TrEMBL record:
InterPro entries (UniProt xref): KH_dom-like_a/b, KH_NusA_2nd, KH_sf_prok-type, NA-bd_OB-fold, NusA_N_sf, S1_domain, TF_NusA, TF_NusA_bacterial
Species of origin: Sulfurimonas aquatica
Protein name, entry field: Transcription termination/antitermination protein NusA
Gene name, Swiss-Prot/TrEMBL: nusA
Gene Ontology cellular-component annotations: cytosol
Classification via SUPFAM superfamilies: Nucleic acid-binding proteins, Prokaryotic type KH domain (KH-domain type II), Transcription factor NusA, N-terminal domain
Domain of life assignment: Bacteria
BP GO annotations: DNA-templated transcription termination; transcription antitermination
Entry-linked HAMAP family: NusA_B
Length: 377
């Protein structure tokens, strides 16, 4: 097998792999071939011959006593040789010495060559997939883009991302979205799996809160450089989202920077999300204040935080004017659901005997009896 080291270098260059890892895969392919065409019970080792730029196969045999029980085991016996027999070749050998016998796969003709070719293909493909798996596993939660190559009968969208094909399942697509072959779309890597039958599988998502965060980082320089941090994000895809943001610089307004002049930045992200409305909230570590902000646009009177036995915040009891309840709940409960997702707490609403003015001030309601008297006076 001449010049196999040159072949290893060419494969590494062509597929963007480490030459050392390619060489290890080739050595494994040689060992597996030897086991298949010579004897699967032999202990083989692939050794590099740098001078000849080749790989040679060596069978390792351990010298044992003549009465060693392992010599009677059909599976173990090929790896051992009784000392009396070993001394016929070398009278200096001792127990536990290891003898090495060279084998030449070329002696096994076309069978050996075809088997070696299959083994090399298999192990190089596994190496490529392993490298790709590691590369894309590190990209979970990050933004990728690609071209749509197929949409199947289940509306799963297949996308060519770099050199691999990823899938965007229907469940991970924003409601109302439709894609055609040739469309270029963005998504985040949701999951990367590997199995022997299908190889590497990359699943994408456009409904994950992480997708919103990545799009914002793309549009808002202050987020991408860390001046503004997205602490939390919650979405009901295609409808509405809330993000809690925090500025790390005293002269940077987190909400203003994220929204942009005349809303240009936030609108660009909203357009990518099929018109999804995005509420920007300034994050605070004070739970009562944070809960109050997440309930926007409703005006809140009071917030009480309930903790569990471990001291974790599990419930927020919110007192608010009667005329603010519908705003707090939102259409189809969307506002309170997002607030609960963002805070990680169950939210309970209590109406108070107050109302709000046009200026947003909370005032006490007049007694209902006084109101009736006024009607008749």
């Amino acid at each position: 097998m001449e010049k196999i080291l040159d072949i290893a270098e060419a494969i590494a260059h062509e597929k963007g792999l480490s030459p050392e890892k390619v060489l290890e895969s080739l050595k494994t392919a040689f060992v597996q071939t030897a086991k298949r065409v010579i004897d699967r019970n032999f202990a083989f080792e692939a050794q590099i011959d740098d001078a000849a730029k080749s790989i040679k196969i060596v069978q390792t045999i351990t010298v044992v006593a003549d009465d060693d029980a392992r010599l009677e085991d059909e599976e173990l016996a090929p790896a051992f040789i009784p000392i009396s027999e070993a001394r016929e070749y070398d009278d200096q050998v001792e127990l536990d010495d290891q003898l090495q016998v060279d084998h030449d796969l070329e002696e096994y003709g076309r069978t050996g060559a075809s088997q070696l070719h299959r083994e090399i293909e298999y192990h190089i493909q596994r190496l490529v997939e392993d490298e790709m798996y590691n590369r894309y596993t590190s990209k979970v939660g990050t933004l990728v883009s690609g071209r749509v190559t197929r949409v199947d009968s289940n509306n799963a969208t297949y996308i060519e991302v770099d050199e691999v094909r990823a899938v965007l399942p229907m469940k991970s697509r924003i409601k109302g979205e439709f894609f055609d072959v040739g469309d270029h779309i963005k998504a985040v890597v949701r999951r990367v799996t590997m199995d022997k039958e299908n190889g590497i599988q990359i699943e994408l998502s456009r409904t994950s809160p992480k997708f919103l965060e990545e799009l914002l980082a793309l549009e808002v320089p202050e987020i991408s450089d860390g001046t503004v941090i997205i602490e939390k994000a919650a979405r009901i895809p295609g409808e509405r989202a809330k993000i809690a943001i925090l500025s790390t610089h005293p002269q940077v307004d987190a909400v203003g920077a994220t929204v942009g002049v005349k809303g240009v930045r936030i609108n660009a992200v909203s357009d990518e999300l099929i018109g999804e409305n995005i509420d920007c909230i300034e994050y605070t570590s004070i739970p009562e204040l944070f809960v109050s902000r997440t309930m926007s646009p409703a005006i809140i009177s009071h917030v009480e935080i309930v903790k569990n036995d471990e001291g974790e915040n599990v419930k927020a009891i919110i007192t608010l004017p009667a005329d603010q309840k519908s705003k707090a709940i939102g259409k189809s409960g969307i506002n309170i659901r997002l607030a609960s997702m963002l805070t990680g707490m169950q939210i309970e609403l209590l109406e108070s005997d107050t109302t709000t003015t046009e200026d947003g001030e909370i005032v006490e309601q007049k007694d209902s009896v006084d109101a009736l008297e006024a009607l008749f006076n």
